Amino acid sequence: MKKILFLIFIAASLIGCKNTQNNKLTFTNNTELKSNTDEFIKFFKNYKERHYKAPNKIVEKEILREREKNIMGLMDSLIVFKNIKGNIREISIDDNILRYKIELGVGDGININLNCANIVKNKENNYFYNKVKNYRNYQDVYFDGIISINIKNNLPKECFSIDEAFKISHPEYHFHVLDISSSSLSDTLDVNVRDAMKLGKECMDYLSAKFRKEKYDKKEFDKKSDKFNEQKNNLTENQKSYIQRYMDARSFDFVN
After folding, report:
1. Distance (Å) of CA 72 to CA 113, 120, 149, 253
2. How many CA atoms lie within 13 A of 32 on its CB side?
3. How many CA atoms are closer than 13 Å to the CA of 179, on its beta-carbon side?
């Protein structure tokens, strides 16, 4: 536990920006990443089709394992799943954890379920609490986010705990929402925000490697941290808030 708390302390030190949780992220014209909803949906439809054509249960299981491995590669490639439309439900708060689920019906009999959670230290100033509390169950929402990856750099075990045939049509993930709205969000991601997220990810991945007792060098980590902070300084306050929510999400994975 002490090691986990130490990691979270270092992670928090990387987030030196002012807390501006009530600010909505706005994007400039200097953009590179566009809405990747189509790529997100195509990914799951492709594996559903391959699973349907599989000759036996051995191949079916291998296809599911391959999908769950490659979803992490897709996330690394896209940086963040952007402006995805879903249906929010089961909204609750317990022990300062805001919980809700988002379901995506993407066609071909595929329903993706995302289990979302946000730490709420101060309800009055919390970005997510003050948005999500106003949503009705089964209301349509638009969101940005990332799939939760545990400290061992794997998907949580729950992703593999149910029947493969059901899982291929009803994938379920722990998910970190970075922005959410009842109306469509921006389809694009500012290139400076993208670069900051990539550098922040490198820092957090290196910290998780330390926890796994893999190769770790404090000087190397400091170099990564300096690059991250330098890039972060190029951002607006609203953009820094977005990055903060990303770093908070990655820190949350260390204890789950």
Report:
1. 16, 27, 8, 14
2. 9
3. 25
Length of the chain: 256
CB 60 within 8 A of CB 164: yes
pTM for this model (two decimals): 0.82
How many CB atoms are located within 10 Å of the residue 191 CB? Answer: 14
Question: At 210, is the secondary structure helix, strand, or coil?
Answer: helix
The candidate with the shortest Cα–Cα distance to 85, out of 144, 165, 6, 170, is 144
Token digits of residue 44: 């799951």
Q: For residue 216, give Cα distances in angstroms to 27, 137, 209, 219.
A: 35, 45, 7, 9
Q: Using CB atoms within 10 Å of the CB of residue 170, give its burial: 0 to 12 exposed, 13 to 18 middle, 19+ buried.
A: middle
Within 13 Å of residue 134, how many CA atoms lie on the same side as its CB?
8
Crossing angle of the two packed helices 57-78 and 37-53, in degrees rounded to 10: 170
Across the 256 residues of the chain, what is the mean pLDDT of every consecutive 10-residue run? 50 49 38 59 90 92 89 83 93 93 87 92 91 96 90 63 73 93 89 92 84 82 92 92 91 75
Q: Six-digit token pair at 157?
A: 């075990």
Q: How far apart are CA 251 and CA 256, in angstroms?
A: 9
Rounded Cα–Cα distance for residues 147 and 2 (Å): 25
The bridge status of strand 31-33 relative to strand 97-107 is unpaired
